[in-house]
Amino acid sequence: MIKVSILGTGNVATHLFKAFSSSEEIEIIQVVGRNTKALLAFGHNTNTTSNFTDLKVSDIYIIALSDNSIKTVSEQLTKNNALIVHTSGSTPMAELSKHKRHGVFYPLQTFSKTTEVDFKKVPICLEAKKKEDMALLKKLANLVSNYSYEIDTEQRKSLHLSAVFVNNFTNHLYQMGSDLCKEHNVPFKILSPLIQETARKIETLSPFDAQTGPARRGDSKTITNHLEQLKNPEFKAIYKLLSKSIQTTYGKKL
Questions:
Q1: Is pTM, for the whole model, over 0.90?
Q2: Structural contact between residues 83 and 59, judged by C-beta atoms closer than 8 angstroms
């Protein structure tokens, strides 16, 4: 049985709590968070506290907080014999170097409290100072996910940056597409099969081979027409920038 305490009450903490709760080999000892209202969602199933220095004994303390809070909260922890980890993609493991045993337990996924996630499919990136701690993190990860990877700080930073491109920026493009649909009274859901097929294709093709569209074809007429349609200057600038990037990638000159 692995005893775990979760420090945080946000999206990542919520999904970790659900995933850990589903395993008979993990015991959630405590959930810690300053937001007493948010703690109510966990209180029916485990001990909770808003005092970060009032911690019960656990094998692993998981700091599932914003990047800006990790070091501050870490410095309040006095359980020197326990393993202290954070869940951040961009924060170095060294932020926890005050502790003899420290590491990273980074689930690479986008989380929303109201959206269910199949945690078995979530890749978990692991890093630890000591071999025995890596073994413990692997055991924990393998209880809730089918995919765990040893990823060092530099690799994780690169993954996090890549994730911003493929997730956050892509979602913003969805928002732009949605705005354009609303502008012309077209249901955005018509684009849903296209979005799903684009995501499905890269399971069997590289992004390079999967690319389609006017910039990929070198279709200057269509690009000109699209630019004339766009009234929002920011949308037009982004369209130009992305089209130019695609053209550069594939050696197209329009």
A1: no
A2: yes
Helices (H), the chain: 11-21, 36-43, 67-74, 131-144, 153-163, 170-183, 192-201, 207-210, 214-217, 220-229, 233-250
pLDDT tens series, the chain, 254 aa: 999 999 999 999 999 999 999 999 999 999 999 888 888 888 777 899 988 888 999 999 999 999 999 988 988 887 668 999 999 999 999 999 999 999 999 999 999 888 899 999 999 999 999 999 999 999 999 999 999 999 999 999 999 999 999 999 999 999 999 999 999 999 999 999 999 999 999 999 999 999 999 999 999 999 999 999 999 999 999 999 999 999 999 986 55
- So what's the architecture of 2-151 in CATH? 3-Layer(aba) Sandwich (3.40)
Give the other-Cβ count within 10 Å of 9's Cβ: 26
What CATH homologous superfamily does 156-250 map to? Answer: ProC-like, C-terminal domain (1.10.1040.20)
- So where are the chain's domains? 2-151, 156-250
